[in-house]
Design brief:
By secondary structure, this protein is an alpha/beta fold. Helices cover 44% and strands 21% of the residues. It is built from 13 helices and 11 strands. The longest helix has 20 residues. The chain starts with a helix and ends in a 21-residue tail after the last helix.
């Protein structure tokens, strides 16, 4: 029976491909973070030119821009934090999660090389990007599980983006920050270069939030943090082709760090090629389709529903949130 289903699916996709009319434009969107970088490789190598005449990448800079793009249908495929995708779905936005590819990207960076765990930062000022979104949410959930109060035991300095937090570190306005790669690697590169290596104190990698999550919740040290979602309706063949090429480009990105650094900075000039190369070693990247990510996502969402229900739209998304077909 399973072989028959696979055969039928293949036939349907073949029919869709035969009847498919090439799109005028396909819009991909994402942040400057690692989850978006395989899409840049796809554009640079024209891997989707068989399905669209023009392919464009739009970068969103903060969660508000992400939500605006999703609500007005400004992108076809969008890189998104998983909780934001769930939140939008639960608010009625036509969005489906295709895959999860980022399972670890967050860490602390500090001027104090003796600080190794989150508990070492009790009483400290910490620059925190994106209030009430993924970095802040994960930090709060971990320290709560450690029987700490995130608002009372730490002095969180909220900023609009990882770049803002990085600048606070470099300008010596704070000594510690919670950042996502590649911002951590960028900060380390900047302060190691002239003239900042003279005027800015050394910075060090510190607590790995994925490791702390695993220890706190007694699970594997990975968190389904971000992936790709489909906005609106799209031909099954287009979705299949996107998933195929994203998976290939993610593998290329992981195995070609130097080339990846150069490629990404062609499209996102504010990033540093060497820092991108550095960051790949520290990011947990693994393509897992939406259905196969469901157990990990629901574990994550169930923690959020108990403490920050608004972060996922006040309830666990139903099965229609996950792309039903394994189109890869």
């Amino acid at each position: 029976m399973f072989k028959i289903i696979i055969l039928i699916t293949a036939i349907v996709l073949a029919i869709n491909a035969e009847a498919f009319k090439k799109l005028d434009k396909l819009i991909l969107s994402g942040p400057m973070a690692s989850v978006s970088h395989p899409m840049l490789h796809m554009i640079d190598n024209a891997t989707l030119n068989d399905i669209a005449h023009n392919i464009e990448f739009i970068m969103w800079k903060n969660p508000d821009e992400l939500r605006a793009l999703s609500l007005r249908g400004g992108a076809n495929f969008i890189a998104v934090p998983t909780n934001v995708a769930a939140n939008l779905y639960n608010k009625g936005v036509d969005i489906k999660l295709l895959n999860v590819s980022v399972w670890g990207v967050l860490g602390m960076i500090t001027r104090d090389k003796n600080k190794k765990k989150l508990t070492d930062f009790i009483g400290c000022d910490i620059a925190m990007p994106f209030r009430a979104d993924m970095p802040d949410i994960l930090f709060e959930e971990i320290v709560k599980k450690q029987n700490l109060n995130p608002k009372k035991d730490f002095n969180l300095k909220y900023v609009g983006s990882p770049i803002d937090a990085m600048q606070m570190l470099i300008m010596r306005r704070v000594d510690h920050a919670l950042l996502a790669e590649p911002a951590i690697s960028m900060a380390l590169r900047k302060t190691a270069s002239f003239p900042l290596n003279i005027i800015a104190p050394d910075l060090y990698r510190s607590a790995d939030l994925q490791k702390e999550w695993g220890e706190a919740f007694k699970v594997e040290s990975k968190i389904p943090q971000a992936g790709i979602a489909l906005i609106g309706k799209q031909n099954d063949y287009v979705v299949k082709r996107f998933n195929e090429e994203y998976k290939k480009s993610l593998k290329w990105y992981k195995t070609h760090p130097k080339e990846a650094g150069k490629l990404v900075t062609k499209y996102i000039a504010m990033l540093d090629a060497d820092a991108i190369t550095d960051s790949i070693e520290y990011v947990q990247l693994d393509y897992v389709n939406a259905q196969d990510s469901k157990a990990d996502l629901e574990f994550f969402f169930n923690i959020l529903i108990n403490n920050k229900p608004k972060s996922i739209g006040n309830h666990i998304p139903d099965n229609k949130f996950y792309l039903q077909k394994k189109l890869h």
